[in-house]
Amino acid sequence: MRTVLVSLLATLVVPGSAGAAFGFSAFHSPSRNIVCVGAGDRATGKRMELRCDISSHTWTAPPQTKPCDAGDYGSSLGMTRRGRARFICVSDAPPPSKILAYGELWRFGPFKCRMNTTGVRCVNAAAHGWALSRGSVKRF
After folding, report:
1. Would residue 109 count as lying in a domain?
2. pLDDT category, 66, cuts 50, 70, 90?
3. Is residue 49 pLDDT above 70, yes or no?
4. Are 73 and 87 in contact (CB under 8 A)?
5. With the C-alpha atoms ordered 64, 67, 69, 71, is the resulting torsion angle positive or negative?
6. Domain region containing 133
7. What pLDDT is stored for residue 21 in this prediction?
């Protein structure tokens, strides 16, 4: 998933590339501790992915099931349009984005994220997702 999201982001910044049909949207929490990025083809719903990174947290991620090719593990979650939430390896940083105010709902294709004072809660079309904050992480 990390490779796909990085590839999607890369195609968005290359003018005139074949990936120009892909959409991209991102937001930061008011504290700037959490950033989430959605990418994929909103018209067809193909290759839709969501990723949230958290800079500072007090919880411990579950053990890795396989090593990262490159990058870090333990502070990023990802999911596809209907897939389960999972911890992912990342080797990049999301771009600057707008602040999502407390109480506000963000939508991108099949994904919805609500910013709460206690963190962010994101779900996909299959009602899988996460609740992410400095103090806890829950996948469902």
Report:
1. yes
2. confident
3. yes
4. yes
5. positive
6. 2-13+22-92+102-139
7. 66
| Residue 119 forms part of a structural domain | yes
Total of domains in the chain: 1
Query: What's the pLDDT tens digit per position in 75-109?
Result: 999 999 999 999 999 999 888 899 999 999 999 99
Q: Whole-angstrom Cα distance, residue 85 to residue 11?
A: 24
What is the SS3 assignment for 105? Answer: strand
Tell me if 24 sits within 8 A of 5, measured CB to CB: no
Three-state secondary structure call for residue 13: coil
Q: Which DSSP state fits 69?
A: S
Average pLDDT over residues 9-22: 45
Cα→Cα distances 82→2, 69, 110, 124, 126, Å: 17, 25, 8, 6, 5
Give domain status of residue 110, yes or no: yes
Q: Which of 119, 62, 127 is nearest to 88 (CA)?
A: 62
Sign (positive or negative) of CA dihedral 88, 4, 82, 45? positive
Within-domain flag for 44: yes
3-class SS at 2?
A: helix
